[in-house]
Amino acid sequence: MHMADALLSPAVGAAFWAGTIGTIGYASKKLKTHLDDRKIPLMGVLGAFIFASQMINFTIPGTGSSGHLGGGMILAVLLGPHAAFLVMSSVLTVQALFFADGGLLALGCNIWNLGIYPCYIAFPLVYRPLAGDGRSPRRLFSASMAGAIVGLQMGAASVVLETVLSGKTGLPLGTFLLMMQPIHLAIGIVEGFVTAGVIHYVREARPEILDRPGSSSPLAAGISFRNVIIGFLALAIVTGGALSWLASTRPDGLEWSIGKITGKGNLPEQEHGIPATLKSVQEKTAFLPEYGFKPPANEPKEKKEETPAWPAVDAGTSVSGLVGGGVVLALAFGIGWIIRALRRRSAP
Amino acid sequence: MSFEAAYSGIGRLDRLSYGNTVVHRLDPRAKVVATMAFAVVVVSFPRYEVLSLLPFFLFPVLIGALADIPAGFIARKVVAVSPFAIFIGMFNPLFDPATVAIAPGVSISAGWFSFASILVKFALTISAALLLIATTSFPGICRGLRRLGLPALFVSQLLFLYRYLFVLLEEAMRVVRARDMRSFGNRGAGVRVFVRIVGTLFLRTVERAERIYGAMLARGFRGELPSMRREALRPADAVFVLATGCFIALCRVIPVPQAIGRLLGGVAG
Question: What are the chain B neighbours of A193 within 8 Å (beta carbons)?
């Protein structure tokens, strides 16, 4: 459930980046005071461990499909939330860079969706109360199951929220939720089984890893509920700001009607999340109004707020658009090809 | 993606990043900042925009060509991760059925434009991110991030993860091969066996971490990973960032393909 850059608007991407960077700073600060340096290599290697185990597929019982581990919950139980969050963030960063899972702008969202929910919500609020002291295998099982499911469900819902806020797809909220939640319920159940199994296995084979002081309990105790609430409040404010940018389509509608009246169609700017500087520059480009970005005359009035103007239906504009696009693409790739050819020649 | 393919994929990107070209020699910070700015500007286009995005292909193409990165390799990786974007975007033509006339007599649903827009943006941002890693060594990126203000602990975590990734992936590969050889066909790929495998892998990991820690202490580790490299921004870095900035700002503001089309159309007509 990695978010992709292409589905994000800059405002939403930046809001989640801000939340993620803030949490990384918070977790690092918390760990610095709590952590002995023997945990630093352990965390690093565990990141590689999660990475490696995500590549081992297992078949999901009953279906023919296979899945792989997420690992946020296992890490939280083994390392405590702060260290687990940092490890998860590092895993996602490497995945974004090497496997192109999501992309750079979406990385903030991905760390948020797959790190914050299991480490800072599901672990302290679901897993710990259910697991108790962690001696009873049954409680451990139900805690792992519930924790993994809750974490994944929140993450999946968050993907939906980010996509819808960004307004890049036509997917209605309800349909999208109906698509995402059930499939992630199935994944969450498997994740729960695996989490419970691994914790049980480690408990049998090396109980001191789970009981080691400084490993899980003191760090987990160090998480303050107040900080979690503050973090969410901050995110709500930032996203609210982003939302209001997105929601401010009314001036555009106005602009649109003015354009319609005066007959000088200007490209209505529906995306206001771009930096203000770019926008102000863009406003100065009204000197190119003849590119024919006129709204279609038959568009229903209600639609106009969401739908940007279309190139006027006139063969000249369409053709020139296609020709220009083709030329630009050919130029871009042609330049690359020429550079490559020149390099080849000069190499030997 | 099969295990071995994924593993060799990382290895190949890693090897490419140790090249020595104009692009490789740029400061990691410059490349991180430029790539980030590129991604932000690309996704800032309205949802129906397709044509105006095309000039942006010049950025990944130039970087790839100047850095001698095999284009086919990057293209294959982009295609390999595309299903998510396609899966979300392919519903647009269905849910956004308002028809748009593109030429006299021809009209299609508006959703096709937003779908195409998503795909173009996807190809642009992903290829830019892949080229960043293919032209900058991962430790280089980590140092850049540290200099850009990320917490030292997080950067150490990234470096450690990267350092042991290959070691552990090989370990995992051995375990998986053993499983596959003992379980003919699909048997043994169930959740039960998987739990055992992950558990074993975890214990081996912890033991390895303990040995590593001992070895690091013996070499004077005091909680932070020092770097011997001193990096200063050079004029070339400034030029690169500036040129990229101007290019993306220009393409954001002026619809280049439409302008060129007009020009050519004017000449022909």
Answer: 191, 195
Residues of A in contact with B154 (CB under 8 A): 24, 27-28, 86, 89-90
pLDDT for A253:
39
* Maximum CA extent, chain B: 78
- Note the pLDDT of residue A266: 40
Angle between helices A104-111 and B110-135 (to 10 degrees): 90
CB contact under 8 A, A98 and B41: no
Average pLDDT, chain A: 71
Q: What is the pLDDT of residues A56-85, one digit of tens each?
A: 766 655 555 555 677 888 889 888 899 999
Pairing of strands A66-67, B99-103: unpaired
Average the pLDDT over each of A48-62, B56-70, B136-150, B252-266 and give the range with the smallest value.
Answer: A48-62
Any B CB within 8 A of A126 CB? no
Mutate to test the interface with B, among A5, A73, A199 (most CBs of B within 10 A): A5
Higher-confidence residue of B5 and B44: namely B44
Is residue A165 within 8 A of residue B47, CB to CB? The reply is no
pLDDT the model gives residue A229: 61
Residue ranges of chain A with per-residue pLDDT less than 70: 1, 35-38, 57-68, 209-318, 347-348
Residue B64 distance to chain A (closest CA, Å): 8
B42 membership: H or E segment, kind and range: helix B28-43
Q: B122, A6: Cβ pair inside 8 Å? A: yes
Contact A320 B261 (CB under 8 A): yes
Residues forming a β-bridge with A58: A67
CB-nearest to B165 from A28, A48, A343 is A48
Measure CB to CB from residue B160 to each of A43, A163, A291 and give the nearest one: A43
Q: Output the CA torsion sign for A159, A161, A166, A170.
A: positive
What are A180-221's pLDDT values in tens digits?
A: 788 788 888 888 888 888 888 888 877 776 665 444 444 344
Q: Which of A25, A30, A86 is nearest to B151 (CA)?
A: A25
Helix axes B3-16, B110-135, angle to 10 degrees: 60
Contact B74, A340 (CB under 8 A): no
pLDDT in tens, B202-220: 888 888 877 887 888 888 7
Task: Name the minimum distance, in Å, from the CA of A144 to any CA of chain B.
Answer: 13
Angle between helices A276-283 and B235-253 (to 10 degrees): 50
For residues A318 and A292, give the distance between their C-alpha atoms in angstroms, rounded to a whole number.
10
Which residue from A323, A186, A199 is spatially nearest to B195, judged by alpha carbons? A199
The CA distance from A292 to A25, in Å, is 49
Q: CB–CB of A295/B261 below 8 Å? A: no
B118 chain-A contacts, CB cut-off 8 A: 6-7, 168-169
Q: Is A185 on the interface with B (CB under 8 A)?
A: no
